[in-house]
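Encode chain A's predicted structure.
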Amino acid sequence: MYGYVPPDVLTNAELARMVDTSDEWIVERTGIKERHILTGKGLGTSHMGAEAVRGLLAKTATAPGEVDLLICATTTPDFVFPSTANLICDMCGIRNIGSFDVQAACSGFLYALTIAAQFIATGARRKIVVVGADKMSSIIDYTDRATCVLFGDGAGAVLLEPSREYGIIDTLIGSDGAGMPHLHQKAGGSRMPPTAETVAQRLHYVHQEGASVYKFAVARMADVATTLMQRNRLTGNDIDWVVPHQANRRIIEATADRIKLRAERVMINIDKYGNTTNATIPLCLWDYEAKLKAGDRLLLAAFGGGFTWAGAYLTWAYDGAGSAGNE
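Encoded structure for chain A:
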């Protein structure tokens, strides 16, 4: 497990000088105090993903040549093609393996984790790197206070290997395309390719209808957690840690309340990073790593635009004490 966030920080006070908002307003409604922003000419999502993968390989004493599959979950790829996964492999010296991107909005990391688990379970691959990374600042309108306060940039990477004792026990993925109008990017794809007019109309930024997204996010994330708990005959007392997608502190707290889970066992770091989309869950694991023990039972849940949702139930594979987590 390894995370990376760029060094430049955008605080609420700085945002208050850009749009009609305040630190108090942002913290009360979102729980966010600051977010990291990737600056520098020519730096895309792959830059952060590669930083996370390099750190992961060094930390786990894994040579680039040992990796036999890399999957990158991202909503902000460097290019339409090639995939960001291809770029990360090249930057990290990983050659001649399968690599591809997964796009499921904020649920993408758990989608990618689910795919990777299947490769491991069948014996087709033995060392898989899963990356969650997004440069959300590249698609945020910093004149729109409804969205610009929410998002930040970051990346996280995990290494999956076969294990008879620990690992991913159950996963769940779902989607409902009818949710598209509530959270999407209007232009830039094949339906509405970039033109001078789409740029002038500011259609290449995130469009979000907050009330609708809040309602669906709480319901779906609670459903995901409840379903996984029921399928595996678990109660709230059986779960050591819940790792929710960090979209909004109110969504996280409402979800935990619905499934009656102890607040002190819910990982929250949205105050430091904001919503980093595909990076939120791996960054949470990175921050809390020192508190994790081998055998801890974790429940991961996410909700994303489109709409998508996903969850995973797993047992943690190592003692995190003494690790280089960020918490």
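The chain has a mean pLDDT of 94.
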